């Protein structure tokens, strides 16, 4: 089977690119009779990583499709790439690249040249739950769709699936490299955790939350909930990342021991963490939840996030609506004070994590490829 994986960006914008690259590496590692090639739109860190991994790749610019001259040139580049590689599966990670491949498919169909491309099945991997005005044609021209959560499926496509019911759609949650736990353990064993706590002036139990600090991510809700905790204030809040709301969050947290050092390696954040909180109200999934799960760190997960689907309440995590500040505050305080509960969540998380290994993710995606190739 020849598989062409198509990136939507030349650099890492968010978790979608990170975990698509993990999938690329898993395909290369296990092969399974796969002949692999990857497209990336221009120069950037993703292309460099592909070169370092010695993975066959194509690269050319992919500007907005608004300019007809640039659009035609890019379509020609895509057509030449497909003619050279002749993939069985084209797996597209994002809407902009999917738009170009949809336009190309429509163009070949209208010119009755579909035989040139009829063996290639077009799969759209959707990781964002917000609707887009181009969703309907992309939905129609895709041969199959992968979504990263049921929430994404419902929020983005429920208005379409009411009328188009024969589309092959599969919910496949992101996968994670389970070696992350070993990396975190090494940091702790080598005493680097204590060094980091001293360097960042972190005291007591550490509650961490990380990502881009912007509207909808829930960092403000975490701070408001933490301020309501009146007893046992012997904890620190680590907010790692950057974004337009960072200064506002720090001002809101006056009186709390909040540490916000900017971007940090996730291994270091997790090594410091006694509790991880994922308070986002907008994420269609939430890789932070997978990362904490893999490392056995007790966590509180927003019920709005797609990743709340992979954990069971009070088994692997505590699920809460972070907009309900009193309830959110109570759950944080409960986890701070109940060491036995933290231990239970940790043990169950470690047992659960292998279900979401990158190896299992790969197997699920390959199985979906086979289903799509078998359909007329």
Give short descriptive properties of this protein:
376 residues; alpha/beta; Rossmann fold; 2 domains; seven-stranded parallel β-sheet; six-stranded parallel β-sheet; 15 helices; 13 strands
What would you say this structure looks like, in words?
The protein has 376 residues and is of the alpha/beta class. The chain has 2 domains: 2-175 and 357-374, Glycogen Phosphorylase B (Rossmann fold, 3-Layer(aba) Sandwich), CATH 3.40.50; 180-355, Glycogen Phosphorylase B (Rossmann fold, 3-Layer(aba) Sandwich). Helix content is 46%, strand content 16%. The chain is built from 15 helices and 13 strands. It has helices at 15-30, 45-52, 68-85, 95-110, 135-141, 150-161, 180-189, 192-200, 219-227, 246-252, 266-272, 287-295, 325-337, 339-352, 358-374; strands at residues 2-7, 35-40, 57-59, 89-93, 121-126, 144-147, 169-171, 205-210, 235-240, 258-262, 275-278, 299-302, 318-320. The protein has a 7-stranded parallel β-sheet, sandwiched between helices. Helix 1 (15-30) links the parallel strand 1 and strand 2 (35-40). Helix 4 crosses helix 5 and helix 12 packs across helix 14. The longest helix has 18 residues, at 68-85. It is elongated and about 70 Å long. The two termini are 17 Å apart. The model has no long low-confidence stretch (mean pLDDT 93).
């Amino acid at each position: 089977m020849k598989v062409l994986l198509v990136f939507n960006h030349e650099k890492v914008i968010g978790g979608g690119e990170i975990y698509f690259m993990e999938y690329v590496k898993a395909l290369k590692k296990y092969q399974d009779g796969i002949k692999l090639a990857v497209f990336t739109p221009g120069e950037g860190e993703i292309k460099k990583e592909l070169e370092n991994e010695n993975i066959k790749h194509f690269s050319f610019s992919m500007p907005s499709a608004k300019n007809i001259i640039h659009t035609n040139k890019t379509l020609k580049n895509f057509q030449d790439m497909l003619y050279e590689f002749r993939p069985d599966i084209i797996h597209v990670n994002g809407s902009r690249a999917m738009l170009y491949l949809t336009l190309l498919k429509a163009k070949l169909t209208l010119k009755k040249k579909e035989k040139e491309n009829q063996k290639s099945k077009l799969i759209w991997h959707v990781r964002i739950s917000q609707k887009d005005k181009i969703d309907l044609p992309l939905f129609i021209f895709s041969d199959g769709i992968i979504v990263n959560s049921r929430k994404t499926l419902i929020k983005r496509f429920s208005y379409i699936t009411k009328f188009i019911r024969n589309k092959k759609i599969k919910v496949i949650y992101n996968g994670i490299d389970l070696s992350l736990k070993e990396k975190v353990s090494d940091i702790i064993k080598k005493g680097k955790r204590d060094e980091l706590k001293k360097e960042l002036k972190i005291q007591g139990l550490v509650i961490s939350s990380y990502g881009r600090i912007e509207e909808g991510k829930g960092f403000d809700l975490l701070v408001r909930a933490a301020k309501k905790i009146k007893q046992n204030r012997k904890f620190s809040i680590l907010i790692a990342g950057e974004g337009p709301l960072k200064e506002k969050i720090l001002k809101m947290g006056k009186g709390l021991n909040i540490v916000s050092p900017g971007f940090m390696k996730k291994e270091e954040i997790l090594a410091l963490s006694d509790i991880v909180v994922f308070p986002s109200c907008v994420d269609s999934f939430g890789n932070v939840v997978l990362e904490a799960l893999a490392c056995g760190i007790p966590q509180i997960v927003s019920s709005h996030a797609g990743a709340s689907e992979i954990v069971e309440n009070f088994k692997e995590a505590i699920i809460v609506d972070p907009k309900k500040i009193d309830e959110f505050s109570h759950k944080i305080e409960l986890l701070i004070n109940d060491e036995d509960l933290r231990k239970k969540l940790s043990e169950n998380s470690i047992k659960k994590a292998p279900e979401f290994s990158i190896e299992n993710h790969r197997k699920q995606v390959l199985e979906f490829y086979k289903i799509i190739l078998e359909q007329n």
